[in-house]
Amino acid sequence: MEIKGTANFFERVYEIVRQIPEGRVTSYGAIARSLGAAGSSRMVGYAMRAAHRANPPVPAHRVVNRIGVLSGKMAFGSSTLMQQLLENEGVEVVDDRIVNFRAVFWDPQEVISL
């Protein structure tokens, strides 16, 4: 059973995530706020967990929690894949946390208007 409007919400999340530049990250909450749904960070997390089914692909590894922790890393099927993908883009990660989080943070509200 699908919750009414969930698919549309997920697609709106994916549209934003596809715009995150390589080597940058954003948070679940920042995405939710940019959609006018500030209290929906958890729903953004659900969307990221299902992102592997989306087409075109969604760079879900670029979405972290509000303090830069790789809280969704287990959704990648490996405890290290999310970190590897970020590091391949030049993002430094130590102990499952983005180093210089503010410097690599991308705020969708400043860049796009949906």
TrEMBL record:
One of its GO terms (biological process) is DNA repair. One of its GO terms (molecular function) is methyltransferase activity. The keyword Methyltransferase applies. Gene3D superfamilies: Winged helix-like DNA-binding domain superfamily/Winged helix DNA-binding domain. It comes from the Bacteria. Residues 8-91 form the Methylated-DNA-[protein]-cysteine S-methyltransferase DNA binding domain. It holds the Pfam family DNA_binding_1. Keywords: DNA damage, Methyltransferase, Transferase. This is Methylated-DNA-protein-cysteine methyltransferase related protein. It comes from Parapedobacter luteus.
